[in-house]
UniProtKB/TrEMBL annotation:
The entry's keywords: Leucine-rich repeat, Repeat
Top-level taxon: Eukaryota
InterPro entries reported in the protein's UniProt record: LRR_dom_sf, LRR_N_plant-typ
Domain Leucine-rich repeat-containing N-terminal plant-type as annotated: residue spans: 42-87
Identification of the protein by name: Leucine-rich repeat-containing N-terminal plant-type domain-containing protein
Length: 173
């Protein structure tokens, strides 16, 4: 082999290595971008409906605890809103929702009901934090059942949704 032929062979090998490296980097970037899905439109709309419901029955103010839940900016990613967590492992679905410390608008009322049909927009919701609330029951008007009724002062701090949706009509003491 002459020196000129060796040089071109070396250049050809380097080009092939560069092409393989470029393909690997491109594939990695595509996979990484698919993992960062962001907020799903149906879940975003579900959160806004939940906020509207809570504003009517509870002391939830625009300037207060759900300020980031806004319909003004349609490109706003609800996965970055306060009280909400999403998971890339579930395709960007909402997996955690915190409804801590909601005070009924009419504080003379001893308790308030939570309409669970508002949670149907979140099919992958794994955890619902209901700490420091005065819910008398959790009801689902779509199925027409009261899922959980509390006889005494509700003192639960954390509820996993999977067992709740398996219950049809249960009374807790």
């Amino acid at each position: 082999m002459r020196a000129n032929e060796r040089y071109w062979w070396w250049v050809k090998e380097k080009k092939q290595m560069a092409l393989v490296l470029f393909m690997i980097v491109t594939l990695m970037l595509q996979l990484q971008m698919k993992g960062c899905v962001g907020c799903l439109k149906t879940e975003r709309m579900g959160l806004l409906q939940l906020k509207s419901y809570l504003k009517n029955g509870f002391k939830v103010e625009e300037e207060g605890m759900m300020k980031s839940w806004s319909h003004d900016d349609p490109s706003s990613d609800c996965c970055h809103w306060e009280r909400v967590k999403c998971s890339d492992a579930t395709g960007g679905h909402l997996v955690y929702l915190s409804l801590i410390g909601l005070t009924p608008a009419n504080y003379e009322l001893e308790s308030q009901s939570l309409n669970l049909s508002l949670l149907h927009s979140f099919p992958r919701l794994q955890s619902l934090d209901l700490s420091f609330n005065k819910f008398s029951d959790l009801f689902d008007p779509i199925n027409g059942t009261v899922l959980v009724t509390f006889r005494e002062e509700p003192s639960f701090y954390f509820v996993s949704l999977t067992p709740i949706f398996l219950l049809h009509s249960t009374t807790l003491n």
